Amino acid sequence: MSDPALKYRTRSDYAFFQTYRTRWSDNDQYAHLNNAIYYHLFDSITNAYLIAHCSLSPTQSRRIGLVVSSHCSYFRPLSYPTVLELGLRVNKLGRSSVEYEVAVFEEGEEGPAAVGGYTHVFVDSEIRKTAGLDEETRKGLMKLLRTPSASPSVQSKL
Q1: How distant, in Å, are the alpha carbons of 4, 39, 72, 116 from that of 64?
Q2: What is the chain's pLDDT, residue by residue, as a tens digit (158 residues)?
Q3: pTM of the predicted protein model
Q4: How many structural domains is the chain composed of?
């Protein structure tokens, strides 16, 4: 996903937040967060939300979400010992799938250093066949649903 509007997202575009204190081991040889760490962050905030607000348990729920696509756009580097604030939203909610978007903000900054996310397809945890979202999961995810298009004020910056 190469959407130039992502660079202009702000905190108000996200409904759920989680703080992450970077670790020395998060840096790569160039002294900034390794790209794989961003995907770790996306997975962490998404699963924290699913557990706390959608009553999903990765080891016990009848349905689990499998990642079928992912993306990340980087706007500026971050490095240890930065404290990060992650914002989560849902851009699209289907019968058995959900498209998440996560923004990575440096503590106190209004604009994101990176924006990415992924799509989950929910499947039966035993037979791995597509399964529709249950009502509790759908209800929790609806609280994060935002329109994916940029606002008119953002469009003018592009």
Answers
A1: 31, 18, 23, 21
A2: 458 889 999 999 999 999 999 999 999 999 999 999 999 999 999 999 999 999 999 889 999 999 999 999 999 999 999 999 999 999 999 999 999 999 999 999 999 999 999 999 999 999 999 999 999 999 999 999 997 554 444 443 43
A3: 0.90
A4: 1
Packed helices 35-53 and 135-142: angle between N→C axes, nearest 10 degrees: 120
154 falls within a domain: no
For residue 29, what are the domain limits?
A: 4-146
Task: Report residue 67 as tokens.
Answer: 């990642």
Q: Is residue 158 part of a domain?
A: no
In a domain, 131, yes or no: yes
Distance CA 113, CA 40 (A): 15
